[in-house]
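Good morning,

Attaching, inline, the backbone tokens for the sequence recovery test we're adding to the shared suite. The designed sequence is right after.
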């Protein structure tokens, strides 16, 4: 349980926080640390970011946040998310996200910053932050869907399917769930077979021509989450979310 790193030319970082992969504050920092460690290893050519269980990621651990008497867990989770998303983006080798089941909230931040996405047929992608009294990761959702679709998803909190993202061209492959990890590793193997120096420079070049600074824009979004918590709207929404469950 937690976050594990399996090293190799194709390194795997695996998220495992049962029952739904709602990641605690410390877990986001662990993702950041292990993705960074994988990328720093000169023998690594590709990183596969995957998860155990029925869903890839349910976002932050709302229960952990609500148990806290102050804003320390919120602040830790927000810093942890920023670090994890940045680690995926800044990883000097390509990162392939292997997504099954639900990918929500912070999960969107991870896959939106990945270089490629391979998804199971049952995968869905959503940003339910408005219903949970928070804002953030629209920066990363905008890398997955067209602008008006991104706005619609933020306002309504409705998810889209892996098939939808495949039509948009942002999911590389959609496969049956039992084939997900093998397919991600096969794609990774194809990239890993290329000259590693060229691939690392390609990753650096592609990041350099991005039109949006994803780290700065995400931190801008997070500022509104702080505002919602200061005025009480965030806590009201989280209480309602937990009560409805």
């Amino acid at each position: 349980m937690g976050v594990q790193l399996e090293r190799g030319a194709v390194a795997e970082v695996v998220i495992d926080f049962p029952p739904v992969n709602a990641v605690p504050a410390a877990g986001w920092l662990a993702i950041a640390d292990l993705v960074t460690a994988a990328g720093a290893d000169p023998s690594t050519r590709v990183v596969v970011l995957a998860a155990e269980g029925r869903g890839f990621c349910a976002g932050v651990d709302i229960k952990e946040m609500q148990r806290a008497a102050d804003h320390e867990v919120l602040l830790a989770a927000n810093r942890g998310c920023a670090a994890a998303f940045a680690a995926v983006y800044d990883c000097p080798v390509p990162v392939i996200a292997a997504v099954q089941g639900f990918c929500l909230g912070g999960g969107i931040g991870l896959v939106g910053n990945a270089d490629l996405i391979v998804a199971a047929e049952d995968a869905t992608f959503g940003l339910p932050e408005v219903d949970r009294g928070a804002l953030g990761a629209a920066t990363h959702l905008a890398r997955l869907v067209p602008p008006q679709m991104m706005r619609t998803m933020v306002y309504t909190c409705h998810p889209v399917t892996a098939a939808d993202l495949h039509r948009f061209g942002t999911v590389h492959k959609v496969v049956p769930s039992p084939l997900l990890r093998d397919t991600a590793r096969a794609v990774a193997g194809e990239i890993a077979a290329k000259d590693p120096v060229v691939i690392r420079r390609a990753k650096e070049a592609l990041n350099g021509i991005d039109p949006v600074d994803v780290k700065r824009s995400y931190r801008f979004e997070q500022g509104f989450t702080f505002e919602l918590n200061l005025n009480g709207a965030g806590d009201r929404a989280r209480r309602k979310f937990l009560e409805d469950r």
